[in-house]
Amino acid sequence: ASQSLSYQRKVSAFQRINWNDDQQVFTDGWMKDLANECSEPEVIELTKMYGASKAMQTLVEIHHNRYEQTSHDIWKEMKDAVLERLEDYAGAKQRLSQLLDEEQQRELEQELEEERQLERPPPVKPCQPILHEEIKQLCDMQSIMMNLTQYPRVFRRLPYAFIGTTFANDCQAEHWQEKFWISTEFQRVIETKGESLESFLRPPRWIIIYRNQQLILLSALEANWLIARLNSLYHKGETENPSTTTLRLLLPRIKRVQSIFVNTPTLIIPPLIRHSIDIVPFFISLQWLVQLFIFNGTLYFETVDEQTAYCQCLSLCPKPRTKEEEEAFKNGWIAVDGFVSNSEHRYALMLHEVQFHNNLLAFVKQIIENRNNSHAPMTSHVGSIILNSLKLI
Fold first, then answer.
1. Backbone angles phi, psi at 190, to 5 degrees
2. Could you identify which of 99, 215, 249, 283 might form a hypothetical disulfide with 261, taking C-beta atoms 3.0 to 4.6 angstroms apart as the criterion?
């Protein structure tokens, strides 16, 4: 509306020009008058600014008053069109009337003050850490292998880590690797009174491979004790060579070029070195690794094999696709997000390592956001797959 007034003022100023008269003379005084009529006023008189008392009026009424104040010729058609548009969009909305520009109006109008009281969550109390005897027994190489299911007070299946969070309903607990465990201390972080634990999920950093069969996620306290114990047994020569029980550090790969340490022989405790050529040390397989990638919020892959195993695990067939896969997409076998739901279609598309039979992408997005305090960037390998259904390597 303000722009229409400015436009009409300039149109009115140029009406004195006869565009068909080539002999018309433009004197200096005439040009100064034209410039003055087209330019915006730099100074507003105090009588115009504060002279009239302000009252609540609709935007249509305010702008109509501005039309009445102008001394230039106004196009009635444009005036009516602008007022009609204000009536349609502004309706009965009222403001304090003032013959000012919008910026000056904002400076002079008194802002309404609002006071809000936000109830902050009460301070939380950390759990008192406990080092269970069963954790210490993991280092006992001479005893019979423990059956972890017999110690629910100390060991639970991996999905137990999500107890007390909304992730527990979406993680498809029955589909995670059965040999993945957590210690109950890994899950215990704060003493709760019904609060959600989503903000207090412990980051998975330490794992122990127990007798080359079970993978257990541990708390930092448990890992510290096991580091000292395993190193002591190694230097005394009381462990097998290579050891079947090893402590490992697992990092999420959140940069393109980054080691995650978990299969680095020299960084494993005890280190997987100085063993017989005939004995192959235990390395975590790709099928296990990709589930750990999902759990710890990994964003990047090191190899194409990791990317392929990740997609197979989640039953995804993202772009770029082969001719057969494109045909399957057209036939509705592959969803827009790349998920393949039908078991027969999975077999035809050679998705033979599917671990999660229902679409887990919503959970993956949420766990990445929780672990990294940010959304998965679309430029990352995982972000491109779960957001754009596109493989980058």
1. -130, 155
2. 249
